[in-house]
Amino acid sequence: MSIASSLLVVAVTALCTLATRATPFILFGNKRRKVPAAVLFLGEVLPPAVMAALVVYSLKHISFEAQGLWVNEIIGVAATALIHIWRRNTLLSIGIGTVVYMVLVQGAFL
Amino acid sequence: MFPDNRIVKQAFLRTIPVMMGYLVLGVAFGLLLQKAGYHWVWALGISLFVFAGSMQFVLVGLLSQDASLTTVAVTTLLVNSRHLFYGLSFIERFKAMGKRGLYMVFSLTDETYALLCAVGDVGSTEDRDRLSWWMALLDQSYWVTGSVVGAVLGSHITLDITGIDFAMTALFTVIFVEQWIAAKNRLPAIIGMVCAIVSLSFLGPDRFLLPALVATVAMLLAARNLVEVRR
Hints:
heterodimer; A: mainly alpha; 4 helices; B: mainly alpha; 12 helices; globular
């Protein structure tokens, strides 16, 4: 691909990405109009729902058919969640959860 | 108002999990782009101006297969469509941030969104907004650094850090747990989880998220009375 057409492809990607992120603000960000109540409601209740979806999203490639491939992820997530419920310290939970997962993928189930 | 260095330190501490994930994934992106025959300047430019994790990996493919601009546009809109929903929680907040708010809109990735949802009470509104801005800026700086390092070093990297990007799964998990504990009403979290799992099992890993989010929004709106009364 030539430099010019590569640049065009990158520019289109950048613009379309920005478009998806800016849409809610373009639709509901108007200073003179009030944000509709349904949108305010969604803004308030979506975070926990989206976070649940993002946990699933970041685990989307686990396969329950291949043995051992999902065990690491499940143990990693469970360890993270349990340590977090126990100590409520974000960095501690993420740190230990990640180390547990790294030990598992680099050793035990490879 | 806290002094700036305290805000920056807070922002750094809170973005450490994202740093681990973004550096690793950024390096992976840089490597891929370099293998596709692009100079590291491209990695720098793309991570500065596109700044969308999964889409940048797709972009490498589009660049190497000579895709048409229409294909590029449609693919980008589809891959990033989940972002349509993130701004809904920050309309008033970003609007009040002026020029910095524009950068917040541009840089609203999954991970920055998660951190912003978990920002909590940090004293004043100004401190919260400055903290949010620094977290967004630091997140992008990790991503840019990772991409450039990956593209410059190429395949000379030998350190075995397999699995370190699990930090981002752990970040989502922790924020989910936090919201689960704090929620007066757990229905939204349950709806989100069920929609995601059902959608994943029917549509597979590459196409499940948008339908899951659309279904979540529809069900939340339908259950609005239930959610609001019990709050």
